[in-house]
Please model this.
Amino acid sequence: MEKNDVVEAVCESIGTQGEGIVKAGGCTVFVPYLLCGEKAKIRILKVKNNIGYGKIEELLAPAEERVRPKCDVFSRCGGCQLQHCNYRTQLKFKTALVRDTLKKIGGIETDVAPCERSEKTYGYRNKLQLPVARQNGKNIIGFFAERSHRIVPTRSCPIHPDWSEKLIAALYDFMEKCGLDGYNEETGKGQVRHIVVRELKNRFIVTLVVTEKIAGIDYFFFLLDRVFSEYSFYFNYNTNRTNAVFGDDFELMRGRGFYECTDGGITFEAGANTFVQVNEYVRGRLYDKVVSLMDEQESVIDCYAGGGLLTAMLAKKCKKAVGIEIVPEASACADKVKERNGLQDKMINYCGDAAELLEQALQAEPNAAVVLDPPRAGVERRVIETLKAHAVGKILYISCNPATLARDAGILTGSLREENGVLVKGSANGEYTLVSVEPYDMFPQTKHVETLVFLKRKKN
Model:
């Protein structure tokens, strides 16, 4: 089989990225947007070592699970991968994804609970982040294509609320009227790089990421007044030639900059750079579950704590809760959460790297349970070694990446061990046992899934 061949095949299974997997010409071929059981003509795009990649040329026998995507740029934009299948199928895929990844990467065979559904499957995201560029003499606003920095222009996004379409139109209008250029990554030219909006209970924080202070911002405020009833506005200055969205400097141009919300019985605060889960409908159930697994008389250390919402919920129930967060803005928000909720005697916040501060926190609270909610890269090896060295009895691990979750859980349970600097399959006789695995659909229409894993230390 060679590039540009067209083959007929039936999809046998679904891969970790949500793509269909077929067998053809002695090769395993990965085909995006193909569902299990579907027959299609497939054009081969690439073949190497009996592994191929293709695209659907013609769908010959669609599956009953197939539905019409709501987005005009679905399959071109890299944001969603699953709009072509019904929601029940999406949930089954994510349950299987967590189970199979734990086995394949972590060497862990275990039962996985059915993926917890989201109340809203469209319009659920409370954060919008859009790159802005200038291409072929025109400004474009949209989302990056899969595995690239090529922007796919869009005027609306159905997984975001209706205000997103109005905001995009306002930014196009503002840039055209004021003669502003989108950013060119190759040359470093252009004033506008990104726009980022966070919604907090119908109040909004708008951040325009720019390379320099720009004139005419009052006209943008005039346009935003038509979109949002209450909002704050920041300039963020970013001249770095990197992929980071934000630079170090924020300048508040309008509004308070931070807004209070109440969730889970806790009043919390968030700003432009404070981590808050993007799906509040699922976040509440996930956090409630974490709290339910804690005892009233135990202390808890919450690593990667963000703005302190979960830390405060834990402090409200437990003897004491310690939050560790590396972003200064988020840690400052956590301090305000502590004060607003009368938790001064039960909640402590440290600002810094969890890999460095967890040791200190465990020395102060030697019998504490530990909650981990790291970014997609998972937890640092130093964190895992600290957990093991202090014989932490209970670990709750919240993950948005099944692959790094499987790696870290494998190290803790002993199903993975290090040999000559490389992780290899072990004997599962490590210090910890896996009690439960519960996926949550924080990100409907996408391949991504949030997972809560409960680990307990084995008795000697």
